[in-house]
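Write out the bound-state structure for adenosine monophosphate.
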Amino acid sequence: MNLVLLGPPGSGKGTQAKRVAQRRDLQHLATGDMLRAAIESGSALGRSVRAIMDSGALVPDDTIIALIRGWIRRRASGSGFILDGFPRTVAQAQALDHLLTETGAELDVVIELEVDETALIDRLSGRFSCANCGASYHQRTHQPQVEGVCDICGSNDLVCRPDDRPEAVRTRLEVYRRQTAPLLPYYGTRHILQKVNGMAGIDAVTSQIETILNAVMPLPG
Ligand code: AMP
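---
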């Protein structure tokens, strides 16, 4: 099964994609994570995208499509995937269609996480994570048990993403409205778009997603 998770920044795509990937044994591709890893490694790609990402704008389509092209071509055939953070523009969605056709695959379902904007600002503004293992926290709703120490791996390297600063958050939401929201009619007219209420709790959102996926492809047993 091949799926795309769509939704504005802070809608929970990363959290839900990890859960679904694990449960259904899908390959998880998060373009934001790939780009952050490139920055961390100091590669030419990382150096070219750092300032753009920090500002909350989108990395150019050509750069991101080249990254995805390599990934789609390399991935083991037969196993499904979940895309998180890609596509983010109609040009990217068209490129994805071409790549999938070329590799004999197709998208089974696109799931949109619907969340209202005030909640998004609140979620993003308090967000921080463990630089070592990636566990996520929130200043108001999910502090680690011991202040400054990751519950999962014990690291004290807890960091706030530069693009979670209020100014960058505003840019990211505007970019979503202008450049990514047109994907909703793009997939809607193909009848593969399904919506879930992203305002519900994390487990409730996962079960809404599972209900949709079970209708497309039930899990054995
Ligand atoms: P994310 O972790 O998905 O919120 O992505 C963080 C940032 O990475 C975005 O604000 C963009 O600057 C960049 N980025 C991630 N995915 C894409 C994409 N598909 N197209 C363009 N830029 C992207």
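---
The radius of gyration is 17 Å.
Residues 166-180 form the longest helix (15 residues).
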